[in-house]
Amino acid sequence: MKAAAAVFKWNKLIWARGFTTQLFVSRLSFYTTDNELNNLFSPFGEVTEARLVKDHKTQRPKGFAFVTYKSEEQAQKAIKAMDGRIVGGRLIGVEIAKTTEPGNRDADS
After folding, report:
1. Radius of gyration from C-alpha coordinates of the chain
2. Which UniProt keywords apply (predicted)?
């Protein structure tokens, strides 16, 4: 348990300082595929993970995703280029992914 708490504190410190490489992408088309998401963000750097969040029952995308880059510079480049861009007829939002303590879904309340 101590190791998990230490990892969380380290992740929180990294996020507070802005040294994160994971982005939150919102307002995506419900027809976006994993491959399209990866292709959309790969011009800005090495994408280590591009993950659409999907409904567990239908396996259809919920309209948001997480994209992780190898470096912070690449992530910042993607934010500048993609935030507010129209993709698939929708105005998408791209920002640094916020982290919360595991099990605490009301972290901002």
Report:
1. 15
2. RNA-binding
pLDDT of residue 100: 65
Neighbours of 52 (CB within 10 A): 21
Q: How far apart are CA 21 and CA 72, in angstroms?
A: 5
DSSP H/E element including 85 = none
Q: Which domains does the chain have, with CATH numbers?
A: 20-96 (3.30.70.330)
Q: How far apart are CA 44 and CA 94, in angstroms?
A: 13
Q: Strand ranges (DSSP E) for 1-109?
A: 22-26, 47-54, 61-69, 86-87, 90-91, 93-96
